[in-house]
Predict the structure.
Amino acid sequence: MRAAMAEAEVGDDVLDRDPTMRALEERVAGYLGAADALWTPSGSMGNLIALMSHLRRGDAFLAPLGAHVLDAELGTAAWLAGGMPRPMEHDGGPGKVTPDAVRRAAGPEGPYFTLRTTLLCLENTHNAAGGTVTRPEEHATVAAAAKAAGLAVHLDGARLWHAAVKLGAPPAALTVGADTVQVCLSKGLGAPVGSVVAGSANFVEEARRLRKMLGGGVRQGGVLAAAGLVALDRVDRLAEDHERATTLAAGLRERGWRLQDPETNIVLVDVADLPGTLRRFEEAGVRASAMSGKVRLMTHADLTDADIDTALARIGPLETAPPGRNGTARPVSRSHSRPAGR
């Protein structure tokens, strides 16, 4: 990837487009079934550009609870795009909403002083729900309900590659009915930076202006786009991450930990003492983070099967501290790490 970056053909992407950047955008647009696409420095900027394009100040938008646009983008949907967020319960399963819920939330048009709901934001896979996958038919029926209710649809597909690999489906099968789509080139694919937002030619023309407004225009962007092109060649290997996540989850369950079965590469562990458990993992040399009140473990391209075995050995059983770096186990007091659910 670094060699491709060093050898990239470059131009001025702010003025007359960078050839390597353009090749990346056209390739992603083809994958997503979109007319055109635009590179952005981050997925958050890609989502924000889409929301700024779809919303007028004071418009409400719908999104599943815990969606990235709601909880992990510093409120820019409201702050910069001017939208009023309306979170929706996961009535269709973890990370999912149903067509009926969308129709109810969209509601009938009221008098001039009522809040207008104009946009539905979906997320596939849903990060905070544990990387859960929305199937093509589920996505299509929800998108159709939104369109029938007069809503535009934006799909935060930062991890759409994971969903496509899990389902054995082309990415375009997961974007039907979406007006705009954002996909990330670093989530499991290894690019150091970059996302792509896609839609109609008119949308991309406006998105390029918005990107410049937000400070996302770059000059010799081909250096970064070259990494994205290499990343796209690695999509199929995401299946390895999914398999290792399943192995990790099974090993944790055997050791007494409580967790849901992962659909992709995110393992969420239910614990009674979240801060204490995170400290315990850190002390054992296992990096983890908090998400949705649980411990989040993620498998990725830099891990091997042996790394999964090592992580399980270091974490150890629920009631026992993980072995230290020298392999010596230490007991854990109940106040430091308690069994989940007690």
Observations:
- The first strand starts at residue 36 and ends at 40.
- The first helix runs from residue 2 to 6.
